[in-house]
Amino acid sequence: MCVIAGYIGDKQAAPVLLKMLQQEEGLGGGYYSGMATIHEGKLHYEKVVGDVNTLIKNTPAMQLPGTIGIAHSRTASGGGREWGHPFVDTKDQLAYIANGAVGIFDNLSLLTALSEKLVADGHRFLSAQNGSMGKYPQLTNGQSIHFSDTFCQAIAAAYEELADHSHPLLMAAAQAYQDYPNEIVGLCLHAAHPDEIVAVRHNQPCEIGRNDNGEIYLATTTIAFPPEVSSQMRMPAQAGAIFHRDGSMHIEPFRKNPIPLGPFPSPFAIQEAITPLLKSFEPPTLGTLCDAVKPLWPEGTLNEKAIAVYETLASMLHENRIYLQDIRIPGMEEDTTVPRTHVHLTQ
C-alpha cells in the first residue's frame, strides 16, 4: 500500500504536496518518498529512501519550482533510492507514480515480457538491479525491474506514438493500463503538458478535491486535503482522467475491463466489519481494516477496500468518533524510523 498526492493551481506545488503527503504517509507509506514538478518546460524531481521528513531534510524537495506536481510515499520493499517514486522516462520528460500491485490480475509474465521489449527498444530502467525481487519482473539477464518503472516507460513509448492525437498523455496511460491491467492507480506529469495531470485508475484510491479558486488536489484519502478544499469526489474506477489548470476535468472510462468491479458495500456493512477492530485492545492500522472489509466484495471481482476504509475513517474523523495516532517503527535503513498510523476510538 502506498499513498499519492497531486496538485495543480496557483501556489508553489512542492509545499502543498509535501504537506498532503505528511497527512497520509503513516496510513500507507513512509519507507520511500518522492515528488516531481514541472517548471518552464522542465521536469524536476527528488526522491529518497525514507519518509517525507527525510525527503525534506536531505533534498531540495521543498524548493522544487512549479505550480503543478505529483508526490508519493510507499511501503517497504527491496532496492535503494531508485525503487522509490516518481519514475522518470528515458528522455526525462515524463514522471509517473502509482499505488497498488499486480493483485487479482496475476499478469507478472506479461509485465516481464513488456519490460524485455522496452529494454530492446532502448528504454532506460534506473530501477534495474541484480537478482529476484518478489512479484516484480525479472529479465533474462537476471535483473529485476520495478513494475512501476515498466509502466512509466510503456506510457512514454505509447505517448511517442500518440503525440499527434488529442489528449496523448491520457490516451497513452489508459492504453497501458488496459493492455496490462493491475490493481493500481497512477498519476502522470509530462514536461510538454505543464497545465495538466493525468490519472488512471483500476481500483486503488484517488480522491479529487477543489477549492473556490478552482485549484485541484488529488490524494489517496480526503484526510490529506487542506481545509480550503470545498468540494470532494471519488475518481471513477476503471477510468482515466485529465485535470487541467483551469479547474476542468475530463474523464474517460476504460473500454476494456477484463475483471468486473464489485458493487460498493453499504456504509452499514463497512462499519459493521471494522467496528470490532476499532473496539479491540490493539488499535488497528489501515491494512488491518482493509483486510476486514475485503470479504464484502464478491469473489472474483475488483474490490475498493482501501477507499471504503479511507472514506469511513474520514467521516468518523469529521464526526470526532475517532482520532489517528502515529507511532515510529523501523525504516528501510539502519537507525531510521517511519510513521505508522493507528486508529483509536474517541472515548
Question: Could you walk me through the main structural features you see in this protein, from its secondary elements to its overall organization?
Answer:
- With 347 residues, the chain is an alpha+beta fold.
- The chain is 28% helix and 28% strand.
- It is built from eight helices and 17 strands.
- Strands 3-2-4-1-12-11-13 form a seven-stranded antiparallel β-sheet, covered by helices on one side.
- A hairpin with a 2-residue loop joins strand 2 (32-39) and strand 3 (42-49).
- It is globular, with a radius of gyration of 19 Å.
How would you describe this structure in keywords?
Glutamine Phosphoribosylpyrophosphate, subunit 1, domain 1, alpha+beta, 8 helices, 17 strands, single chain, 7-stranded antiparallel sheet, Arc Repressor Mutant, subunit A, 2 domains
Largest sheet: 7 strands, antiparallel
Q: Which strand-content bin applies to the residues?
A: 25-35%
Strand order, largest beta sheet: 3-2-4-1-12-11-13
| CA distance, first residue to last residue | 29 Å
User: Which structural class best describes the helix and strand composition?
Assistant: alpha+beta
CATH class membership of the largest domain: Alpha Beta
Number of strand elements: 17
| CATH fold node name of the largest domain | Glutamine Phosphoribosylpyrophosphate, subunit 1, domain 1
Figure out the total of helices: 8
Assign the CATH superfamily of the largest domain.
Aminohydrolase, N-terminal nucleophile (Ntn) domain
H-E order: EHEEHEEEHEEHHEEEEEEEHHHEE
The residue fraction in helices comes out at 25-40%
Total individual domains: 2
